[in-house]
Amino acid sequence: MQSLLCYLKYQKFDQAERIIDDNFIHSPDDSKKVIGYIGLSLHYDAANQSLKRRMLLQKANEIAERTHKPTDLAYVKYGLAKYHLVRKEYDLFLKDYNIGFTTLKDLSKEHFLVSMFYNLKTRYLIETSSAEGKNQQDIKENSIKAVEYAVESEIPFLFDIESNGKSLEIFYHISQKNQIIKELKTKNKKYRRQKYIFLLMTVLSGLGIISLTYTFQRKQKLNKQQTYLITTEKNFLQAQHQILTMQREKLQKQIIVTSLQLNSKNLALNELKQSIENNENDLKKILKQEQLADNDFNELQYITKEVHPNLFNRIQKISQNKLTHLDLKYTAYIYLNMNNFQISNVLKVDPKTVRVTKYRLKQKLGLNKEVDLCDFIQNLGAVT
User: Fold this and answer.
1) Structural contact between residues 84 and 90, judged by C-beta atoms closer than 8 angstroms
2) Which residues, in sequence order, are CB contacts of 240 under 8 Å at separation 6+?
């Protein structure tokens, strides 16, 4: 069709007829036949053969009525509108033009035919314009529309150069703008690609931050677990140390008790030695007393409590007068929770003597009558 219009524009009728005959009139497609007859009518329009042109338009109309295709009807109405425009039958022109142009509104891809309609309307406005330039704005708008749709259809030969001398100039400027638009679209694609790359980098950065945060939290959790384990181990070692301290103090207590027992044994042996020399009957009495003392010391090992290593230093500081060696012995016996009878057996003295000695020790410590000496010494030993 582009070649056909070009040949008709420059009155190359033989070439135009050959294209119409080969590609349209003898085509099995009725729609192509419609286009062929319309194209041939344009040829006779250029040759000023009005009757033949009318006959060709009639054939095209008959085929369009049979096919019921909007495109075929639009082509027929275009041909009829142009036929009436040449004959200056403007009422019939507007009737066929409006029907054809309305049909094209439902056809989104027929830029070629839309451009032809706008071009035809431009010619009509030029012919009917007054000397005052009444239709100049409409002529300009329709001419621009014709060029725009021609650019979209990529068939620039549809312009009616004789009717609008500025069409090529408009086409040139629109082509330049289209080129700019293509460049902008290319840049937009590039920017869109860069945008996607940026978004991808942002997502990867976010994932990296999440990964680092997870790693940090995991390490922090591990550090807390290690801290807990170390603290637990530390507490365990402290408990072990306390146990060892208690065992050491218990051993010291046993040493004191054993020392007391050995001291008692030595006294008993000395008395035994003297008794052997003096009286055999006294020997039996001393052995019996020694057996009772041994029983007391065996019981003592079960009922004593811990002896604090600093007990004697503390009680010396509290005492208002210097304590004697006997006072310290009594302090140890009392701390070991020994009663008066047990103390009297160990020291081989009368229980009344034990009471008197404990009373004097209480005075030396400056204790009131209400304060129990045994409780005071027990509490003193328990201070760490």
Assistant:
1) yes
2) none
pLDDT in tens, 23-50: 888 888 888 888 888 887 876 665 567 7
Residue range 191-226, pLDDT digits in tens:
888 888 888 888 888 888 898 888 888 888 888 888
- Counted residue by residue, the chain has a size of 384
Cα pseudo-dihedral 380, 252, 271, 355, rounded to 10:
10
- Give the H or E element holding residue 183: helix 167-278
Give the confidence band of 94 by pLDDT, cuts at 50, 70, 90.
very high
CA dist 76 and 96 (Å) reads 9
CA count, 13 A, side-chain hemisphere, 150: 26
Q: How far apart are CA 78 and CA 83, in angstroms?
A: 9
Tokens for 58? Answer: 């009639």
Residue appearing with tokens 């937009």? 188
The answer to whether the beta carbons of residues 41 and 83 sit under 8 Å apart is: yes
Give the 3-state secondary structure of residue 350.
Answer: coil
* CA–CA distance, 155 with 6 (Å, rounded to integer): 10
Phi-psi region of 371 (alpha: psi -120 to 50; beta: other; left: phi over 0): beta
Q: Which whole-number Å values give the CA distances from 212 to 204, 208, 216, 220, 227, in the listed order?
A: 12, 6, 6, 12, 22
DSSP designation for 47? T
CA distances from 339 to 298, 336, 346 (A): 14, 9, 11
Could you give the CA distance from residue 211 to residue 217 in angstroms, rounded to a whole number? Answer: 10
Q: CA 100, CA 94: separation in Å to the nearest integer?
A: 10
DSSP string, 90-156: HHHHHHHHHHHHHHHTT-SS-HHHHHHHHHHHHHHHHHH--TT-TTHHHHHHHHHHHHHHHHHHT-G
Tokens 């012995």 sit on residue: 329
Per the rule left: phi > 0, alpha: psi between -120 and 50, beta: everything else, 48 is left
What gap in Å lies between CA 56 and CA 276, rounded to an integer? 172
Q: CA torsion sign, 327 to 331 to 333 to 339?
A: positive
Question: From start to end of the chain, where are the E strands?
Answer: none
